[in-house]
Amino acid sequence: MSVFSLSDFADHEQVVFCSDEKSGLKAIIAVHNSNLGPALGGCRMWPYASEEEAIRDVLRLSRGMTYKSAMANLKLGGGKSVIIGNPRTDKTPELLKAFAQAVERVNGRYIAAEDSGTGVDDMKYMSQFTDHVAGIIDKPTESGVRNGDPSPATAYGTFVGIKAAVKERLGRDSLAGLKVAVQGLGNVGFDLARQLKEAGAQLWVTDIHREPLVRAAKEIDATVVAPDEIFGLDVDVFAPCALGAILNDQTIPLLKAKVVAGAANNQLAEPRHGAALMHKGILYAPDYVINAGGIIDVYYERTCNFDRAELKRHIESIYDNLMEIFARARKEERPTGEVADAIAEERFKR
Ligand code: NAD
Fold first, then answer.
1. Whose C-alpha lies nearest to ligand 1, atom 9?
2. pLDDT classification of 252: cutoffs 50, 70, 90
3. Average pLDDT of the chain to the nearest whole number
4. Mean pLDDT, range 112-134, rounded to an integer
């Protein structure tokens, strides 16, 4: 296969293919753009069906990180890495060490953090072999200390972003009585659902696993629905917090919500689905803008700034970023995703 001509290659500065015979490591590190700073992005471990699938994924994700960090006004570029393998069966200390050494050889142009298939413990282990890992330091919170996992910050940023979208589309400041459907009750989705409940929202939730659903019904009085029922609910907000590509030709016709605002990455199956949402009168909060809380959290860790109030203010700037996008999209009659891309490009191509 050719790499340079792939549409996802899109101006990548550097793509590194890494292997280690002894540990079985096969990994790819992609640095999309470092105009604003070192390329920070998660390390995903996944049993890709083919090398082509892994290449496409890493390129698409690293490009997305450039836009996310630029939009969040961070001095970071965009990058991502993938390890080809099953995290449940193939992840060994030797493999993580070999991957950390590969990251070290990129010499700080790429900084790894946790993603699907890797966690805080993996990053901590890797930090023995390279300085270029993040999401590893315990942080003070109002109720004690939390570990380096950025998910709570992502959930808070998404909560703030939902408020912005509700203000824009429904003209409401309060979430009390608002009907919200949350797809996916993982690290981000459950925390988000809890915050929505505390703000007075009424919740419908789904997941493919039973345990978080039982907890959600018990702890936050949420109504549990089957995975394929979540799209067609008569709610105000649909918050995707599970998979990518869930806004597509099959699901968009089903939606009754006036706002789509959630944490999942790459929600639009194709860019044209942003226009489809707009034509249906649905306000879409661009995924990489609303889910930037985690990268903001990791950035503060890298700069050793543990000022909780400052970090919170920065995460809350997601509200203003979205309002700027919504206003411009309204004025120019363009899909919000297109407007977000234009603003991000103005920032990182400057
Ligand atoms: P997670 O793996 O902890 O949670 C995902 C949840 O979705 C799981 O509970 C899973 O069972 C559920 N799920 C999977 N398929 C489903 C389906 N078809 N229907 C319903 N539920 C389904 O992941 P997370 O860390 O909570 O992240 C959620 C999303 O947000 C992902 O798309 C992730 O890329 C994105 N995101 C996460 C962060 C972060 O800080 N964790 C940051 C930015 C973006």
1. 186
2. very high
3. 95
4. 95
Which pLDDT band, with edges at 50, 70 and 90, does 148 fall under?
confident
Strands 77-84 and 25-33: antiparallel
Residue 30 identity = A
* Ligand 1 centre distance from Cα of residue 106 (Å): 29
- The H or E element containing residue 316 is helix 308-332
Active site residues: 80
Percentage helix, strand, coil for the chain under 3-state DSSP, each rounded to 5: 45, 20, 40
Ligand 1: residue whose CA is nearest its atom 34:
265
pLDDT at residue 142 greater than cutoff 90: no
Is residue 139's pLDDT more than 90?
no
Q: Are 207 and 239 in contact (CB under 8 A)?
A: no
Q: What is the pTM of this model?
A: 0.95
Which of helix, strand or coil describes residue 40? Answer: strand
Residue 350: pLDDT band with limits 50, 70, 90? confident
R_g of the chain, CA atoms, integer Å = 20
Q: Which two tokens stand for residue 188?
A: 């981000």
* Ligand 1, pocket residues at CB < 6 Å: 150-151, 154, 183-189, 206-209, 212, 227, 241-243, 263-265, 291, 294
Q: What is the residue with the minimal CA distance to atom 32 of ligand 1?
A: 264
Q: Give the separation between CA 93 and CA 194, rounded to whole angstroms.
A: 35
- H or E element at residue 279: helix 272-279
As a whole number of angstroms, the distance between CA 77 and CA 106 comes to 14
What are all long-range contacts of 87-90, with beta carbons under 8 Å and residues at least 24 apart? 87/45, 87/46, 87/116, 87/117, 87/118, 90/24, 90/45, 90/47
pLDDT above 90: residue 2: no
- Nearest Cα to 78, choosing from 90, 63, 93? 63
User: In this predicted model, what pLDDT tens digit does every residue of 324-340 receive, in sequence order?
Assistant: 999 999 999 999 999 99
Dump the DSSP string for 115-169: -TT--HHHHHHHTTT-S-B-S-S-EEETTEEE-S--HHHHHHHHHHHHHHHHHHH
